[in-house]
Amino acid sequence: MSFFDEAPRQRLSLPARFLRLHWPLIALIAAVATVGFFMMHSVGRGQAPWAQQQMTRFIVGGGLMVAIALVDVRFWRKIAYLAYAAGVAGLVAVDVMGVVGMGAQRWIDFGFVRFQPSELMKVALVLALARYYHDIGPVRAGKLLWLIPALLMIAAPCALVLIQPDLGTAVLLGLGGFSAMFLAGASWWFFILMALGLGGAIWAVFASQGTDWQLLRDYQYRRIEVFLDPTQDPQGAGYHINQSMIAFGSGGVEGKGYMAGSQTQLDFLPEKRTDFIFTTFAEEFGMIGAVSLLALYTLLVWMCLASALRIRHSFGRILAGSLAMAFFCYYGINMAMVMGLAPVVGVPLPLISYGGTSMIALMCAFGLMLSAFVYRDAPFDTRRG
Amino acid sequence: MRDEELRGQEMGRKRFTRRVLLLGGVQGLVGAGLAARMYHLQVVESPQHRAAADRNRFDDSMIAPPRGQIVDRFGRPLAVNKQNYRLFVSRDGSPDVEETLAQLARLIDLPEHRRQKALRELRTGSRFAPVMVAENLTWDEFALVNANAPALPGVTPDVGWMRDYPQKDSCAHVVGYVATPSQQDQEADPENRRLLLLPSMKIGKNGVERTEDPILRGKAGARRAEVNVRGQVIREISRDDGERGAELTLTLDADLQKYAMERMGDYSGSVVVMDVRTGDLIVLASMPGYDPNPFVGGISHAAWRALNEDPLRPLNNKAVAGSYAPGSTFKMIVALAGLDSGMISPQHTVFCNGRMPLGDHIFHCWKRGGHGAVDMNRAIKESCDVYFYDVARRMGVDRIAEVGRKFGVGEAPDVALPYVRPGVMPDRAWHLAKYGYGWPQGQTLNVSIGQGYVEMTPLQLALMTASFANGGYGVTPRLVKAINGEEVKLEPLVDLGFRRAHIEAMQRSMDAVCNEQRGTGYNARIKLAGYEMAGKTGTAQVRRITAAERARRVRANEELPRHLRDHALFVAYAPRHDPRYACSIIVEHGGGGSAVAAPMVRDILTRLMTRPPPSEAAGASEEVGQGRAG
Question: What is the ipTM of this complex?
């Protein structure tokens, strides 16, 4: 605990900041991402340039992560609301002028790059909530009245994402936001009420099916129905999950071998590059590989949570802790989804699934976490902030 | 104030730590749950998922084996496999199948109904399943399509095999034909159901194609390929081409058969020529014939109806399935029964005045005024009916039936053809069972001249003749001479148990029929020295001659409409002193045996015996036959 005893410093020199980076955590991130490169190579049958593209993104994202980490965490607190506003503006923009892809509007096309504001939003929301709870202080955080601004901050992007419609991202945003509230100290009563409310909402979703005020799109109902019984429609909506479970289970304990997963290589597994990449991994490396990767992810999150405990300001703690929990929700939902434990809602496997915005957003989040860790002893003057 | 804030900070920090540890624990629990699910999928349920993955991955298909070819005794093709140029179209490969088919129709003759059918199948079938749009293309058409392949996206040319019967209608009844297995065929053979479901698979439906189907079919091959989700074959994992079907050599002489049918002209009926020692069926013709080729690709309903409703019944194989009254050709059996029972001797004489009364009925001889005093030889030679009435009446029908059955009457010959009928050899027990009352004596008289209940097929007539010719031995007819070039073992001749002298008496009488003046076959005799035949004419009455007509004058056949005229029959063997071949013929509504049937047999046998010595691969079998019969 020697770090905690160090005298808080106003400013850190660049080498000092470098030394204070959480290097084991960075190594773990790189290790998980490397698994992703190999998987891209496998699903590309050694021909498609997906692994190289993914590596490029990781390198760019890694640079971004270090750059963000080296910036004073107080700066991030300062621009937290700005980032949130930018995220909301981006979501509004996709709803207005986004391009249609996969039956949902999710991208802004800048011509040279396609950008998903919802990915940015996942980070910005946690950032804004961390600032909010930091600013109101731990005592008021436990009061019910102070929940209302936080809830509104979560509700706005969730609603905008649901319009797109992207249930998976909305769930992830909500879970990230609630993680921040929980870690910041929101009352247990709130979460109990939330659980009841969620039950009511689920009831409403099913009750609304087929009526004028239907809450979800037909395809989402279909996915839920098929999730509850995938054999209902093995060629249609249940096809994805059935093929995924076949691929997963046929891997057995030892797997079919790298690049030798028949379900993947013969294209029986859909979306294998993105949402179902974990299935490919499990098919080719078996239960040994799947459990190992799960352990790697768990270790990564635990390491983040442990590092959050060492941060001496509540902004950093809440930021790091809730980003870690968001990351956990990410892989947890993805794994549950491909194994048939959760409906197929389109949540990629973090750091491994193919996708630029998702990778960049994740690396930004790790950058913020690391920034909070580098400046773990920085004194905050809330009044001046 | 400051302290309060610090206390608040401390409280917030402790609360954070508690909640982080809680969430870390929750995360560990969720991780354990996920790991448990992995165990469930990858260990507990793994075998079932592995099987499902293999079902996805492997495409197991059967390969229809090439069907064995059928040739005649000289190697002339009877059933062969012809290359069949076909075109398939798949929706997967073509952006607009309708346009593709329209393009195709500009190149080749593609009837509108065919096009519509293909479009329908394309719309309803799987995106990747190819649909056949044309087959039996000429090489020129096929080459044209291949040359224009870039303009025809989605069209796949393919070469398959198609059964072809080059002899067309002359051998159809013997060779039969193949066709696509029906629902019943598939149900009747569940073991081979998958093979029978193959689109190119055909099975024997008639003739030898049907009876020898198991060996002609061969053994199905199997292929296991790795396919992707679109059904495209990535690689072949294993392949077993199966075994081609056996090549059959029939005993038939296709050219002689064709000649026999031509010689019968417009008449319907049947000719059978066989080797009296080996049982080889050299000619087994049924008139009229039909072309089996349309059956292979699926005959149109109209064409099938036309064949089926034709009064001359072309689809019926009259040689084995036509049951006729043998008429006077049956008289040798009656005479032999008389000799064998010791009832009469060859010298036994009957006075024929042209009629024999029995009860209140008068049985007539074909010759008005009668033959006068006739012995057995003359009775056969001139075919005197009254002689046989007299012998039969004294002998009784059961004695005749006993001999008849020894000659195979009433029993289906053992030959590799479907729908073989047994004929009828009536006796008293048969009559009682069938009609419920005793045998009317008048029927004995009818049977004695091969009329009434007695019925024989042309093949049975030939077998009977062969037994007289070879000295009284039963012959098993042989149709399949060799399988894959390996000679089929001959069935041994069976001694029917008649005294040699009695058989020789029959032979002498049959000789007299053809080679003595006033013999009924004398006018149709073979004059070539050393090739003379011996035989017996027959005329089977189709109508009943009333007493009133008989009182005026029995109308001659020429005066009657064709369907009322008598059937003309003739059985013969040749050469008379060293019998090799037996022949039977039935000319439906031909009139008289001596005038119509006998000349046909004369010509067929003459041609058979005087044809240039063919390079018969069956020399071995003939030696065997000689050794046996001698």
Answer: 0.90
